[in-house]
Amino acid sequence: MSTTIISTDRAPGAIGPYSQAVRAGNTVYFSGQIPLDPATGSLVEGDIALQTRRVFDNLTAVAEAAGGSLAKIVRVGIYVTDLGNFATVNQVMAEYFQPPFPARSTIEVSGLPKAAQVEVDAVMVLD
Description:
Layout: E1 3-6, E2 21-24, E3 27-33, H1 48-65, E4 73-80, H2 86-96, E5 103-108, E6 118-125
Parallel strand pairs: 4-5
Antiparallel strand pairs: 1-2, 2-3, 3-6, 4-6
């Protein structure tokens, strides 16, 4: 099976030795996205809702670069530095996804790159 590296300037470039996403067959594996502004590479300042919107905007850009959309995502992994923000993250996610929702896990972590409050990775299946 061949793999294809997915890359777009509409989402932040990698800040380490990884790709924005990799397509293997009809499955696309997304690297974690943190709330970086793709134009500046800087962390978006603001509350968890603003940061979560930036993350989902970044994921949208990578999904589109791979030939899909958020509607094709089958699994999401969400990492937050404070589970007290769970309800807000849910509200923002509901702005981006429609039923049937993807499978998901939400995990509290002690820290994220660049002191982000949220990071999201995903798996997408294309037809």
